[in-house]
């Protein structure tokens, strides 16, 4: 079965190929690499042609590079797909990115990074449908959560409804028996968090969820007060939001893992970090070996920092480009400002697909951090903005 046959066969059965792929994360990761590449190429080619036909801005960008809707057909052609600079989502002309009428937009998320320039991410009904399925499938594959109590060391979506990081983490609550948000009115009191964890002891498997800097504050408090907790078999520490503080200082992942082991009683394999972007539907989540797996239907293209038309070899650092077929309201073909590495070789977990390591923001980026950075600035009184919002990129 070739690329086009995959989508055509499903459509003939009345099945949406995107929804089928999003709901089949586990099965896709267990396909031979060549077969997985065929399937995601089929989805990406179809998405590319949709945006080419329905988006004047994107079509012009393609034509300026000598690309038409028939130029992209195979896996080898994917590198030729024009990428939209992520800064376009922050521009006054971001409405040009719409491939569907504004009246068809169901969800609009405004986000502000450290530059203070808002980014607008829009999703139509169809994109929201498939993205919800995709997020839960990735959570189930890599977190394995279906019960327990979630200690959210972050504000609730009620306090910050536009922050993508909180929105994504809040979806985990639907898999839990109970949960509580511990940051209220921009204040986090570690004693209250510890009391809540102790109150759930022997009742629920306890999970801790939030951006690294806030969970690190809890760990530092336990260390400074000489307290140690013993979480449960199956407990997870789940982080999203980046490891750089607003001061520019990096939180050491190795130190973080060791502190989780010493003060929470869980092994490093139970600490799972998530990479995501509000402008895309991609997620890359740590497996049991703390290796991030890219959503199997999404393709990462890592470009030479000095020549963006050229891909670097696996294992080399480069600028991340994302080909996301799930995005229908706006093109999911995005050139980010993140420096990453695609890991070579086979996964120790046995999964196929791409695996990545986040390195840093590109030096040319106007942003030096993400929503976690702005949240920390606000909580520490570094900004007067009471509702910090920004992308959910790590």
Protein architecture, described:
This protein is α/β, with parallel strands linked by helices and 394 residues long. It is built from eleven helices and 17 strands. It has helices at residues 3-12, 17-22, 25-29, 33-54, 56-63, 125-143, 164-170, 190-200, 212-224, 253-264, 371-379; strands at 84-85, 105-112, 118-124, 149-152, 178-181, 183-184, 187-188, 206-210, 237-240, 271-276, 283-286, 292-294, 299-304, 307-311, 317-323, 333-342, 355-361. Strands 1, 4, 5, 8, 9, 10, 11, 12, 13, 14, 15, 16 and 17 form a 13-stranded mixed sheet that branches. A two-stranded antiparallel sheet has the order 2-3. The chain has a two-stranded antiparallel sheet with strand order 6-7. β13 and β14 (307-311) form a beta hairpin. α1 packs across α4 (33-54) and α4 (33-54) packs across α5 (56-63). The longest helix has 22 residues, at 33-54. The protein is globular, with a radius of gyration of 21 Å. The protein starts with a helix and ends in a 15-residue tail after the last helix. Mean pLDDT is 89; it is low at 382-394.
List the helices and strands and how they pair.
Layout: H1 3-12, H2 17-22, H3 25-29, H4 33-54, H5 56-63, E1 84-85, E2 105-112, E3 118-124, H6 125-143, E4 149-152, H7 164-170, E5 178-181, E6 183-184, E7 187-188, H8 190-200, E8 206-210, H9 212-224, E9 237-240, H10 253-264, E10 271-276, E11 283-286, E12 292-294, E13 299-304, E14 307-311, E15 317-323, E16 333-342, E17 355-361, H11 371-379
Parallel strand pairs: 1-16, 4-5, 4-8, 8-9, 9-10
Antiparallel strand pairs: 2-3, 6-7, 10-11, 11-12, 12-17, 13-14, 13-15, 15-16, 16-17
Helix pairs in contact: 1-4, 4-5, 9-10
């Amino acid at each position: 079965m070739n690329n086009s046959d995959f989508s055509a066969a499903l459509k003939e059965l009345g099945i949406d190929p995107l929804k089928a792929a999003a709901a089949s994360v586990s099965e896709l990761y267990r396909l031979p690499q060549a077969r997985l590449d065929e399937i995601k190429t089929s989805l990406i080619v179809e998405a590319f042609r949709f945006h080419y036909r329905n988006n004047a801005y994107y079509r012009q960008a393609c034509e300026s590079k000598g690309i038409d809707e028939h130029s992209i057909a195979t896996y080898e052609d994917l590198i030729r797909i024009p990428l939209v600079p992520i800064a376009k989502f922050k521009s006054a002309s971001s409405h040009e990115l719409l491939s569907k009428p504004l009246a068809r937009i169901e969800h609009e998320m405004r986000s502000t990074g450290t530059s203070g320039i808002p980014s607008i991410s829009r999703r139509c009904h169809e994109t929201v449908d498939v993205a919800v399925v995709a997020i839960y499938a990735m959570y189930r594959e890599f977190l394995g959560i279906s019960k327990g109590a979630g200690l959210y060391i972050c504000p609730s979506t009620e306090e910050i409804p536009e922050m993508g990081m909180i929105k994504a983490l809040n979806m985990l609550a639907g898999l839990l028996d109970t949960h509580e948000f511990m940051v209220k009115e921009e204040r986090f009191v570690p004693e209250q968090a510890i009391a809540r964890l102790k109150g759930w002891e022997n009742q629920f498997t306890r999970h801790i969820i939030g951006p690294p800097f806030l969970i690190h504050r809890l760990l530092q408090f336990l260390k400074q007060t000489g307290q140690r907790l013993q979480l449960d078999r199956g407990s997870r520490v789940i982080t999203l939001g980046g490891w750089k503080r607003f001061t520019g200082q990096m939180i050491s992942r190795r130190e973080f893992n060791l502190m989780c082991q010493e003060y929470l009683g869980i092994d490093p394999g139970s600490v799972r970090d998530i990479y995501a972007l509000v402008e895309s539907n991609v997620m890359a989540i740590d497996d049991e070996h703390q290796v991030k797996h890219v959503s199997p239907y999404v393709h990462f293209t890592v470009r030479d920092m000095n020549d963006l038309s050229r891909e670097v070899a696996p294992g080399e650092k480069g600028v991340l480009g994302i080909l996301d077929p799930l995005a229908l309201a706006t093109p999911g073909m995005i050139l980010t400002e993140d420096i990453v590495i695609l890991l070579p070789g086979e996964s120790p977990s046995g999964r196929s697909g791409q695996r990545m390591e986040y390195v840093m923001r590109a030096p040319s980026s106007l942003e030096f951090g993400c929503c976690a950075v702005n949240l920390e600035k606000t909580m520490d009184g570094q900004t007067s903005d009471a509702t910090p919002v920004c992308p959910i990129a790590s």
